[in-house]
Amino acid sequence: MASELKVQISVDVLETSELSAQEQQAMQLAQDAANDAYAPYSNFLVGAALLLEDGTLFKGSNQENAAYPSGLCAERTALFALSAYHPHTKIKLLAVTARRRQEQEYLPAMPCGACRQVMAEYEHKQQEPIPVLLQAPDGKFYRFKAVADLLPFQFNKEHL
Ligand code: THU
């Protein structure tokens, strides 16, 4: 008989008041970063913030292009810029949020597959989990313990 693998992930669903001070600061910076998005085509503004091991924060936003596929998501903008500027710094938290240009309300920000793959690369590189805090429905937040929970059965350098 065929065997079955069951994959279980647990995600914390949190109110703002349940976030730590550092998590709140990271989410606040992600919200600020969304204002910097260059998104004239989708008008969907995404902000990402990285909390680094020295307690500082680093931000990114989506950067679109008239040749649509040449644009880049907020998460990858932040991660690639961090890796370029501070290649040996470990990431303690990744926070992501989004909103539509004409609206104040923050929307669920679920990273796309390509961003999950890139997040997984850096998690693997630093050999320490990167917790991920995402804007969720109804003004709440999802907190994943690691990128691996967002991308099970991932392809990484161990498979090469
Ligand atoms: N976007 C992100 O920045 N992150 C994601 O994970 C999903 C999508 C951006 C890309 C594009 O600029 C806009 O949202 C609409 O897809």
TrEMBL record:
Organism superkingdom: Bacteria
A Pfam family the protein falls into: dCMP_cyt_deam_1
Molecular function (Gene Ontology), one example: zinc ion binding
Binding site for Zn(2+): 73, 112, 115
PROSITE patterns linked: CYT_DCMP_DEAMINASES_1, CYT_DCMP_DEAMINASES_2
Gene Ontology BP annotations: nucleobase-containing small molecule metabolic process; pyrimidine-containing compound metabolic process
InterPro entries noted in UniProt: APOBEC/CMP_deaminase_Zn-bd, CMP_dCMP_dom, Cyt/Deoxycyt_deaminase, Cyt_deam_tetra, Cytidine_deaminase-like
Reaction catalyzed: 2'-deoxycytidine + H2O + H(+) = 2'-deoxyuridine + NH4(+); cytidine + H2O + H(+) = uridine + NH4(+)
Positions of the CMP/dCMP-type deaminase domain: 21-158
Transmembrane domains' residue ranges: none
UniProt-listed CDD domains: cytidine_deaminase
Residues at the active site: 75
Record EC number: 3.5.4.5
GO cellular component: cytosol
Cofactor or coenzyme needed: Zn(2+)
Function: This enzyme scavenges exogenous and endogenous cytidine and 2'-deoxycytidine for UMP synthesis.
Entry's family note: Belongs to the cytidine and deoxycytidylate deaminase family.
NCBIfam families for this protein: cyt_deam_tetra, PRK05578.1
Name of the protein this chain belongs to: Cytidine deaminase
Gene field: cdd
